[in-house]
Amino acid sequence: MKNIIVKVGHVASDSGLLMVADPANINEHWKKIHVLDLDKDKSYFHIPTAKTLEYGKDFIGESQPIDAINGLSIMEAKENGEIIEHTAKKDNTFNLRGAISTAESSKDFKDTNWMLAYPENGLPGIGLVFEPGGNEGVYPVYALIETDDAGVSKVES
Description:
The chain is of the alpha+beta class and about 160 residues long. It has two domains: about 5-35 and about 90-155, no CATH class; about 40-85, no CATH class. The protein contains three helices and nine strands, in the order ββαββαβαββββ. It has helices at about 25-30, 75-80, 95-105; strands at about 5-15, 20, 45, 50-55, 85, 115, 125-130, 135-145, 150-155. The strands form three sheets. It has a three-stranded antiparallel sheet with strand order 1-8-9, with no helix packed on it.
């Protein structure tokens, strides 16, 4: 038996993430959310003023000047080292927010930490999310094909 590696195409990523999932699950289980809800649990602690700033309450964008922190934006306060991002609880829901949360909290490469949950029972396994290179872009996809007609045994990006 001889295996061959074949470039099978490209996949584009706008989020800096890629996901492996059964296409049959997308229509039935994917929980669509509005892009503005991605940061709804995000909050920051501003060290000089000892204020906690909450997304949607104190700011709606990281470039918005905030009176409570002397007119600085979240981005400016980050650059100045004046702010700490609060870690939100991991969300492994089968949606974009869950994918981002799962990837951000799964830097240790343990399989179960990269899995998104089935919506009905919360058990992991409906999808697998990962950062292919950490940035948006177009990534080549390769398949390891077993020549004895066993099919694709491995896919890499």
